[in-house]
Amino acid sequence: MSEQSTPRGTGDGAPEPEPIRWFGTTWADRKADYWVRRLAVSLGALVAVVAGALLLRFAVSGVQLSDAGALVDALLIGAVALCSAMAAIRSWKIFTEGRRSLTGWMAEDKSLGAVWLIGFVGALAAYFFRSLVEAPGEGVARATYDQAVAAHRRRRTARGGNDNGSGRPGRKKRRG
After folding, report:
1. Closest to 7 (Cα-Cα) out of 131, 133, 152
2. What is the pTM of this model?
3. Which of 27, 52, 167, 170 is deepest in the core (most CB within 10 A)?
4. Looking at the predicted structure, is the pLDDT value of residue 25 above 70?
């Protein structure tokens, strides 16, 4: 989903966790539903990796059947492997550090769109391997959420639980 600098808030001002695709906000408390989703996402990503690899294998086989030559076959296989590796590295970085950490060639969405499209198997493989560790993107979302919760606690502690807005307990607002 979209990455924001501060999580949404509740009616009392306490932050809420941002939802993650396929997981919603279950990553925050890691109850039973979270583990079922982690298993389903891991299996789904693995099935998608296998299906994508078969699709690419059929595409490469089609080019090999055309008898274009060994050089063309080698270049095609090399290009698909390179695109998959680049997409996997980029996806892993997004899942572990967030989209804002992308720099250089990794930050190019439009000009390298074809590379990301051809390398979709690498991106799916990165998603699968990351889902074995945590919900993909959970680390970034958890860090943002923990910072927001800590800031909320500091604000509540600084007010001393007094919500009159003065910032100092025991002091009343002047009426003007």
Report:
1. 152
2. 0.76
3. 27
4. yes
